[in-house]
Design goal:
The chain is of the alpha+beta class. It is 23% helix and 34% strand. It has four helices and six strands; from the N terminus they run ββααααββββ. Strands 1, 2, 3, 4, 5 and 6 form a six-stranded antiparallel sheet that branches. Strand 5 and strand 6 form a beta hairpin. The longest helix has 16 residues. The protein is elongated.
Length: 152
């Protein structure tokens, strides 16, 4: 698997993910309609043109999913048991259709499971940036990760 096992993470480890994505109008429209979010700021160009932004904003939950998704190949692909939660989510700058997003991930904490020796908990901080290196999204995520070796 491409993902890392619990033992392979250490506090302070930083990943600069090579995968990037340019967000399209279709991405924004499809995500907003699939999640039943009728906010015209996301799906109505003429409405959005009359706002302070002057154009549609990309749905922030799409942005959150994108920054976590970009990180998966380098960190948790096939080695995670599951996400435990996300906290400290923020969107310090808007994302617009046509922005290209790149991501860094820092390992903030690692802790072996107290009840199951085949797993541990890793806390990640994901940061998403646009093509101008402006921070557009940040979140802290805890994932339960498989151990490569299990002591008996």
């Amino acid at each position: 698997m491409a993902g890392l096992y619990f033992e392979e993470f250490h506090v302070g480890q930083i990943f600069k993910h090579e995968l990037t994505k340019t967000v399209t109008e279709s991405d924004n429209m499809l995500f907003s309609t699939m999640t039943l979010n009728p906010q015209p700021l996301h799906i109505d160009r003429h409405f959005a043109a009359q706002t302070e932004w002057g154009e549609p904003l990309v749905n922030s939950l799409f942005t959150l999913g994108l920054i976590v998704g970009i990180s998966v190949g380098d960190t948790t692909l096939g080695t995670t048991i599951g996400n435990l939660g996300m906290t400290d989510v923020g969107f310090p700058a808007p994302v617009f259709q046509g922005d290209s997003i790149h991501v860094t991930t820092e390992v903030k904490a690692v802790r072996a499971s107290k009840s199951k020796p085949d797993r541990g908990i890793v806390t990640f901080e994901h940061r998403g940036f646009n093509q101008n290196d402006e921070l557009v999204a940040i979140c802290t995520r805890q994932a339960m990760m498989r151990c490569k070796t299990v002591e008996v």
